[in-house]
Request: fold
Amino acid sequence: MVATPFFPEHEQVNTGDPRVVEIRLEVEEKEIEIAPGVFMWAFTFNGSVPGPIIVVHEGDYVEMTLVNPSSNELLHNIDFHASAGALGGGSLTQVGPGQEVVLRFRATKAGAFIYHCAPGGTMVPWHVVHGMNGAIMVLPREGLRDPAGNPISYDRAYYVGEQDYYLPRGENGDLSAMTVHPRRWPTASRIRHLIGGHGDYVWERGGFSSPPAVDLETWVIAAGSAGASIHTIRQPRTYAYLSHNLIEAFVFDAKAIWSPRENGTTT
Amino acid sequence: MVATPFFPEHEQVNTGDPRVVEIRLEVEEKEIEIAPGVFMWAFTFNGSVPGPIIVVHEGDYVEMTLVNPSSNELLHNIDFHASAGALGGGSLTQVGPGQEVVLRFRATKAGAFIYHCAPGGTMVPWHVVHGMNGAIMVLPREGLRDPAGNPISYDRAYYVGEQDYYLPRGENGDLSAMTVHPRRWPTASRIRHLIGGHGDYVWERGGFSSPPAVDLETWVIAAGSAGASIHTIRQPRTYAYLSHNLIEAFVFDAKAIWSPRENGTTT
Amino acid sequence: MVATPFFPEHEQVNTGDPRVVEIRLEVEEKEIEIAPGVFMWAFTFNGSVPGPIIVVHEGDYVEMTLVNPSSNELLHNIDFHASAGALGGGSLTQVGPGQEVVLRFRATKAGAFIYHCAPGGTMVPWHVVHGMNGAIMVLPREGLRDPAGNPISYDRAYYVGEQDYYLPRGENGDLSAMTVHPRRWPTASRIRHLIGGHGDYVWERGGFSSPPAVDLETWVIAAGSAGASIHTIRQPRTYAYLSHNLIEAFVFDAKAIWSPRENGTTT
Reply:
């Protein structure tokens, strides 16, 4: 696995037998820098917020090892929205510092799904807002399809997660240089818009077994969930993928900027 | 009719002639207990919040008698989102204490629809947040269909409504034992997630004449509206159907827990 | 072009060659009256909030002249969500007072799309909440279609935009007679409901190339985006098209009232 926003190398079509895909997720409780000079005590999967994207095909088995190193202080677990039963695996994976656990589940549904720590009660939002969330993309074995059933594919893929940090601010409204703990929790759905582009194909709720919507300007990703979209970039310029709740985008920085180059690479 | 979360007995397919379905809704202004030791002065349909679920088939006539007993203090009425014209019936059903009224409308659209008190102006949100809302499910005469048009059915049905109560809290943040009146109104769409399960079929906006989305982890029910979903429970364990805005779920208790048993019954 | 809520005269089906549609948008910084006796300093396209609706067909070219008169004080530009590249035109259209610019783009996607001023950084939400937003409807050349692919049409069309104004209030909660500047920005998706009617056909995300949902009571327009819906009015009475977040509708006035007459005209 690789750190976000990048994807591991993967095939889009995989018509062979189901595989067992081994994943190792290590919980790291550590300080991260979320803006220049602004540090936060975070809980992470493999060191990044959000955690790494996992890619499998429908019918594959995910065999995840969840490691909670003895240097940590808290109990953690994992709830895979891609799995069924046992609270998404949450009731089978609770591990204290110094413990690890192996969970195997079958990815029976095609789509984009969240995973997150869910150790119970108010600790659920508390751990999530400290950074413990990521996503898994379960591709149909035959690959993605447009509304008419024709195969579609992508040249490259990125994983962008919107994370709410609730941070104290100085008197002038600035985030000063300090170490902070998040204090509150996510509150709303995310409105996504690609400035200067369209969602040529959008799976707003993440389910690849329903036909994608086409040609959208803006769409809504439900809070605490994952969706997927395909964009055709027609001009090598700067694009912003942002919350079209514009205050979130421009005051609270809920935006991702990328610059596709003419040669197909991206900065 | 039976109290929520239960459904009245009903046929899923009804290819006979349209029926006249008689419904009696009595407004009860009374104190209810919404958490252990916490009482609120509520306005209810038939004593529960939300009010009872009504089930008819497309083309049936709903003949509702709305009773406002003389023991009440306020004007009430009812706006059926399943009906057309006359403000959903609101302009024909306003009754004072000691009055009753009969409204007949035809359920011309298949889907899940809200009903609620709507006596005008700021009294609309005021009565709704005091508890005066419920839902009607208008089934297609031929029953529900998957996206390919094949018939689908369910073994049992439950009605879960999310209700915002805006309650004063003590200095320590707890709801202490007291009688309270709601003070504010609903503010956002509801993000639904079934922990450990999937929405095998989801009518996010409630309309049964559009194909359901399939295999979702999470979906969005619009504020003040109704949707429907079918879940296949594969393991007799505890499930939580909750807001996946996790602060709403775990701090403000926007969750419903149920435990399907191996023998098919539910606690 | 005509002022909202009215549409310019247009054909719904246009199977001829693509046209060049010339549009002139003039930015007016001026005081407007948003409630009786309540005035606000606004930034407008052609004097109204929202700006005028533009109607073209898929494949047409929009040739817009954006005029920033010398009587204005600020830089403005325009981001068309209907266009691709160059930040929706935003990076090509920045004009200071006394300047004008011509932008031509091709409407390659069918749907309802927002346009808005986006001069960069926190000025983006600042200009939008002062009033600088509108919409363009790009009709399919063959006209609109129901989910089965059959043509559908409308008798008349209106454009209703919900605009958040964040206004200071007096001690008693009233908006007193005063001139105000907006202070904050939009925060959530809009839940739409037509009291006493249904969305017979709803393009919730605006894309006309996906089949519309049918027979909805309520739907969600993403913040900062446009959708479209067709309603069949069966009774000449008063209807309210409003936010079904009822506090927004009845306390913050997020509603539009109209009264279709028997003769087909509207007040």
Residues 54 and 136 of chain B are 4 Å apart (CA to CA). The two ends of chain B are 20 Å apart (CA to CA). The interface with chain A takes residues 147, 188-189, 191, 193, 195-198, 202, 204, 211, 213-220, 234-235, 237-240, 244-247, 249-251 of chain B (CB under 8 Å). Confidence is low (pLDDT under 50) at residues 175-188, 263-267 of chain B.
